[in-house]
Amino acid sequence: MSTTESDSTTEPDSTTEPDSTTESERSAEARDARDVRELGAAGSQLSTAPREESLLTGPTLSVLGWARWFWRQLTSMRVALILLFLLSLGAIPGSLIPQTNVDELKVADFKAKHTTVSPIYDQLQLFHVYSSVWFSAIYILLFISLIGCIIPRTWQFVGQLRARPPRAPKRLTRLPAYTTWRTAAEPEAVREAALSILKRRRFRAYADGDAVAAEKGYLRETGNLIFHVALIVLLISFATGQLFKSDGGKLVVEGDGFSNTLTQYDDFRSGSLFNMDSLAPFSFTLDKFTATYERSGPQIGTPRTFQAAIHYTAGPRDKEHKAVVKVNEPLEVDGSKVFLIGHGYAPVVTVRDRANKVVFSGAVPLLPVDGNFTSTGAIKVVNGYKDKAGKRDQLGFAAFFVPTFAGKGNGQMFSRFPALDLPVLNLGAYHGSLGVDSGLAQNVYQLNTSKMTPFKDANGDILKKTLLPGEKLVLPGGAGSITFEKDIKEWASFQITHQPGDGWALTGAIAAIAGLAGSLFIQRRRVWVRAVRGADGVTVVEMAGLGRSESARLPEELADLAGTLHAEAPTHADAPTHAEPDPAEETVEKTARASVEVEGVEK
Predict the structure, then answer these.
(1) Residue 142 in 3-state DSSP?
(2) Which keywords does this chain's UniProt record carry (predicted)?
């Protein structure tokens, strides 16, 4: 009985003390939570980035809800970065694997050499990456994602520019950067001085009650928006260039010309929306090609001069203009660019028939096979030649040319220097059908001898002879001759491109770099200054700052501002030393700061 009474009397005491402690803790937690919410509001909207939503919290009730969730995911910055990475990754095979729209011959050679992987590449559309379904899908999704990111962020940022910085929190000590002192100056004078200093430092500032609120660093968000807009400009420019571009090559011998029409090109490629009528009506003539080379030292044979002197007209009624086209210095005419991409030699030959009548005379371009311009090609006489019976016949000569004869190696001539120091031409003669009448395209630099009969020398071998300039090869049986003339011309190959959108692409690239630099190196931050009269009549000045991200520059800047303001409102002579913070209060302060950074800064 007594035991029961003891239990009954001690139990209330054991429960009363914990209940009071719990109530005190709850009160402190509620106060801290209120402060954190207040500081979170002060630190909000330091970024225009939308809140990220978890993939696991999508709507489950309606198709419209799922569509809204998918749109939010597509227009998130995370997805945009993933798509940008995939676009860069998808461009790799376009650089490593031959592309059909660039060089069909290389694609054919690749397929012939790699019979195992070529069907797989065909299925994956790797021979035309930039027009493939999967690359276009990534491209379009990225385009939509960027637009979906930019529009809401732009309106949000415009709203922030029109709005005032948020009011000062009640407890500035909770902010990451904080300082305080006591001064004899009046609170109104301190606030006016703070407002003036902040405005001189290009802060957007205003006085509100007992505090001054200021904000700076809007160029950070401006840089973000400029960067994303520049990406859209780049995408549009790239798409425009691919759809409306034209690109072709032309080999021109000295003295010959080129007119910008489709039939004049040796090879031509264009975008799917290109219109032939949009070709710029210009023409040019190659007057002279000049190339000089290093004559001694370890870099012997290295080109020193590489240029083509031309005269051109920009239209049928335009007067002639002179220009010099160099490597990486193209001629620009009416939106088209003429690039110099290569050169070689074109020996001049004269072919005569049995009656000593000229049936062919002109420069024959030959293709170089090494750095010293050892060159090969074919001379074809299609019309005008007849055999001894008076029937139409065709002549073909396999040509091998060296600009500086260095002898023979392994039975073949080779050149020791790229300049015309000792030019030599070797010819092998054939007659019969060249195959040009079959209707099938053939390489003008190769001689198809399958339907031709070689001329024979006295020993019964194929008639061949090495000629110096001015010498000739006489065909057996009075069949005619071919003369290697002393005049040796050079040829230059030009690439004529029309790429609309290049100017916009360059502008977008520069703007993207500028915007990225601004978003990386400019910090958006807020500063508050509070000046109130203390209980003892002395003014208490508090200054605090909050940035979008952790940076040593914010405390430094706040210290500089505080020093400037302190010069106008110096510390009171009788101000007591600031007391050390209570360890428990310091722990609560660290917790609140961490909460502000998570809830306010990271938004």
Answers:
(1) helix
(2) Cytochrome c-type biogenesis, Membrane, Transmembrane, Transmembrane helix
Helix axes 133-162, 77-96, angle to 10 degrees: 140
Enumerate residues 6+ apart whose C-beta is below 8 A from 49.
Answer: 77, 153, 603
Cβ atoms 298, 308 nearer than 8 A: no
- Phi–psi pair at 591, nearest 5 degrees: -65, -45
The DSSP symbol for 600 reads I
Q: What is the pLDDT of residues 545-574, one digit of tens each?
A: 998 766 678 899 999 999 999 999 999 876
Predicted structure pTM score: 0.65
| 84 burial level (CB within 10 Å; 0-12, 13-18, 19+) | middle
Coil, helix or strand for 149? helix
Q: At what angle do helices 133-162 and 63-74 cross, to 10 degrees?
A: 80
Using CA atoms, how far residue 300 sits from 118, 297, 304, 424, in Å, is 42, 6, 10, 21
Q: Which helix (H) or strand (E) holds 544?
A: strand 539-547
Lowest mean pLDDT among 66-70, 491-495, 584-588: 584-588
Instruction: Please give the mean pLDDT across all residues of the chain.
Output: 83
Element at 258 (helix H, strand E): strand 257-259
**Can you give the pLDDT at residue 407?**
77
Q: Give the number of other CB atoms < 10 A from CB of residue 57.
A: 8
* Rounded Cα distance, 398 and 379, in Å: 7
Q: Give the architecture-level CATH label for domain 165-217+523-568.
A: 2-Layer Sandwich (3.30)
- Return the closest-CA partner of residue 262 out of 281, 251, 247, 276: 276
Residue 434 C-beta-side C-alpha neighbours within 13 Å: 24
The full length of the chain comes to 603
Least confident of 62-66, 292-296, 484-488, 522-526: 62-66
Catalogue the E-assigned strands of 145-188.
177-183
**Cβ-count burial of 274 within 10 angstroms (0-12 exposed, 13-18 middle, 19+ buried)?**
middle
Q: What are phi and psi of 234, to 5 degrees?
A: -65, -45
Residue 456: partners with Cβ closer than 8 Å, 6 or more residues away: 462, 463, 476
Beta-carbon count within 10 A of 296 CB: 6
Strand ranges, E, within 260-389: 267-270, 283-293, 303-313, 321-326, 331-333, 336-352, 358-363, 367-368, 375-381
Distance, CA of 517 to chain centre: 16
- What is the full DSSP assignment across 184-251? SS-HHHHHHHHHHHHHHTT-EEEEETTEEEEEE-HHHHHHHHHHHHHHHHHHHHHHHHHHH-EEEEEE
